[in-house]
Design brief:
By secondary structure, the chain is of the alpha/beta class. Helix content is about 30%, strand content about 30%. It has helices spanning about 25-40, 65-75, 120-125, 145-155, 165, 190-215, and strands spanning about 1-5, 10-15, 20, 40-45, 60, 80-85, 90-95, 115, 130-140, 160-165, 170-180, 185-190. An 8-stranded mixed β-sheet has the order 5-4-1-6-9-10-11-12, with helices on both faces. Strands 2-3 form a two-stranded antiparallel sheet. β11 and β12 (about 185-190) form a beta hairpin. α1 (about 25-40) packs across α6 (about 190-215). The longest helix has 23 residues, at about 190-215. The protein is globular. Bound molecules: cytidine-5'-triphosphate (CTP). Cytidine-5'-triphosphate binds next to α3 and β9.
């Protein structure tokens, strides 16, 4: 099977030297890419800026902004059997990007922000999609309720929920997996590399099941 995986943060420029971003390390997405390759799958890894060595044998597409990630995902999604959107895409970007460095002044200032496009939502509502669609949800509270809402609104097949207070910038994670049919699965705290192996098996099985159903 071919996995398309997004990983890491995006950077939304303010001016040539400044940007808005977040603390995502990309470790979970890269671990899923490694695990999928180890299991014999092909991997297209669309990555925001991270400090990680790219996995051998993956097709790597490096992007910076949410718009670049949106474009790369849409260009490659139909060649994938499973799309796993693990990236921490910025939810907002500056309404205007200054061509020149913004100078300091003694006054208060503010930056007008506009929403970015939601890549997961756009894939979920893509007409006649054939790939299995997996989203991630980073939550700090009401994990199951918030993630169930995301699964429905973004129309994905699986949502993997992690507690944002544990997951960011660490090597460990604890996961709750929600399936479209209402089934749930918990995986207790473990290194991201171990969790990734488990996730790849779960995603491949779900894709196999949905193919069997369609036959
Ligand atoms: N996502 C995306 N494009 C965006 C924002 C998020 O594809 N512009 C995807 C992420 O890759 C992830 C999922 O949506 O798979 C959920 O991301 P999360 O940040 O938890 O949720 P949001 O929809 O951004 O909602 P909120 O931040 O309000 O919890």
């Amino acid at each position: 099977m071919t996995f398309l995986i997004t990983a890491g943060p995006t950077r939304e420029p303010i001016d040539p030297v400044r940007y808005i971003s977040n603390r995502s390390s990309g470790k979970m997405g890269y671990a899923i890419a490694e695990a999928a390759l180890d299991a014999g799958h092909d991997v297209i890894l669309i990555s925001g800026p991270v400090n990680l060595a790219p996995p051998h044998n993956a097709k790597i597409i490096s992007v910076s902004t949410s718009d670049e990630m949106f474009g790369a995902v849409h260009q490659h999604a139909d060649s994938a059997d499973i799309c796993v959107l693990c990236a921490a895409v910025a939810d907002y970007k500056p309404a205007r990007v200054s061509r020149l460095k913004i100078k300091k002044s003694a006054d208060e200032t503010s930056i007008e922000l506009i929403p970015t496009r939601d890549i997961l939502h756009s894939l979920g509502h893509k007409p006649a999609r054939k790939f299995l669609l997996v989203g991630f949800a980073a939550e700090t509270d009401h994990l199951e309720a918030n993630a169930t809402k995301k699964l429905r609104e973004k129309n994905c097949d699986i949502i993997v929920v992690n507690d944002a207070r544990i997951a960011m910038e660490t090597d460990e994670n604890e996961l709750l997996i929600l399936f479209r049919d209402g089934e749930t699965k918990k995986i207790s705290r473990a290194p991201k590399k171990i969790l990734a192996r488990e996730l790849v098996k779960i995603f491949a099985n779900s894709q196999q099941k949905s193919l069997t159903k369609k036959m």
